[in-house]
Amino acid sequence: MKSSEQIRKIIDEAFAWLETAHGVSARVFSLYGEALELIAENAGLSLYEEFCSYLNGQRRYENRILNNLYRLFSVGELDIYVYYTDSEHRLRAVVSPRSAYPLAEELNFTSNTAPTLSVLNMSYELQPSHDNGLGLVLTLDDGSFVIYDGGFLESDADRILNFLTQRNTRTDGICITAWIITHGHEDHYGAFVWFLKKYHDLVKVKYFLLNPVNHCGEGKDYLATVSELIDLYYADATKLIPYTGMKFQFQNVRIEVLFTHQDILPLPVTCFNDASTITKITSPDGTTLLVTGDIQTRSRSSLLQNNMREYMKSDILQVPHHGDSGGTPDLYDLIDPHTVIYSTSNDKYGRIRGEDWALAPNDFLLKKMQVKRVILADDGIKDISLTQKTFSD
Ligand SMILES: [Fe+2]
Q1: Domains of the chain: which residue ranges?
Q2: Quick check: 114 and 168 in contact, CB under 8 A?
Q3: What spacing in Å lies between the alpha carbon of 367 and ligand 1's midpoint?
Q4: Chain segment 49-90, per-residue pLDDT in tens
Q5: How far is ligand 1, taken at its centre, from the CA of residue 324, in Å?
Q6: 293 C-alpha vs ligand 1 centroid, how far in Å?
Q7: How far is the CA of 349 from the centre of ligand 1 (A)?
């Protein structure tokens, strides 16, 4: 039986188990590729436990964030990722072909060395109407890198290669342990596409993490371009779709997923920025960095806030959507960062600070919270050591 038929069979049986045997209302949604997501409403923890037992799979991973539970099972050649969100009383099960997720239930850092976070500047002079773009790089203790997005233009891709070349300390060449794409807007994956086309033979990549949307028309080009290029140039790399609750261990960083667009269902993804994957990075001394991508609408910020509450607390925050919109005072109150990164230009930052529509949340963040440092993606690359539980110059 083909994997798509196996997935459909498991989903149909689980649907019947929920609706017929337990009287629980359920719906099925088609995700990217062959994956399907089953959502059961008005579920409780006991139903979650019963459902996990019913699956009768091999448990490969478990996580708990507050009262939300996450488990990954293998059934044959398939993955079933089952999670329960307490604030919504929803059970979700994503069934997909098996992937080699490097998940870690316990912290097991390879050293106590603090990773360095580098905020890449963008080529704003070449994009007068696009003062956006995100590029963050973590340098790990084995000399390899984790990259978030990378920017918009070919010149941003060139900057990434220059950065990697200058910072590389490995004798076996430049190695990117993981390249994470937050979402499919061009100021986030444009440079990635240029980089793959121009420099794939100069740089090794182990993992690509990206979570495409197939039910929001805007994302179609992104799906085609990015996935095809990865398959073309990095056939040996592992391409993974991250889901909320997954904790990845890469050398001396832990990267935990706090939000993906699957969490929005059964509502539609009406704003493509809301398809951003949100992750929290933890260093060996416990310093935390929250990467929010471009999450844009207040309703999604509220969803994140309701699901994660005090777990949002982070020392360093990449401000959502370049500071344009999306973050709310309530969300910032939970995150309470001492350092904020606005991935925009000096000019745009000045305008954001003066515009009515962006003033309230940014004012709250910068004036009401205890923010000690603002970093912009302009005037060169900025380095921050991730060993700053409290702020120091
Ligand atoms: Fe953006």
Answers
A1: 3-97, 116-385
A2: no
A3: 24
A4: 999 999 999 999 999 999 999 999 999 999 999 999 999 999
A5: 9
A6: 7
A7: 14
pLDDT value of position 224: 75
Question: DSSP E strands: which ranges in 76-219?
Answer: 78-85, 90-97, 116-119, 135-139, 145-149, 174-181, 203-210
| Residue 364 phi, psi (nearest 5) | -60, -50
Q: What is the DSSP letter of 15?
A: H
> Residue 135 in contact with residue 156, Cβ under 8 Å?
yes
Expressed in angstroms and rounded, the spacing between residue 182 Cα and the centre of ligand 1 is 9
Cα-to-centroid distance, 185 and ligand 1 (Å): 6
With a threshold of 0.85, does the pTM exceed it?
A: yes
Ligand 1 center to 133 CA (angstroms):
5
Report the alpha-carbon distance of residue 320 to residue 182 in Å, rounded: 11
CATH architecture type of domain 3-97: 2-Layer Sandwich (3.30)
Centroid of ligand 1 to alpha carbon of 53 (angstroms): 41
Which residue in this structure is represented by tokens 């991730």? 386
CA 261 to ligand 1 centroid distance, Å: 16
Provide the CATH number for the domain formed by 116-385 in this structure: 3.60.15.10
307-312: long-range contacts, CB 8 A cutoff, minimum separation 24: 307/68, 307/85, 307/86, 307/87, 307/88, 307/244, 307/258, 307/259, 307/263, 308/65, 308/66, 308/258, 308/259, 308/334, 309/66, 309/334, 310/66, 310/334, 311/65, 311/66, 311/258, 311/280, 312/258
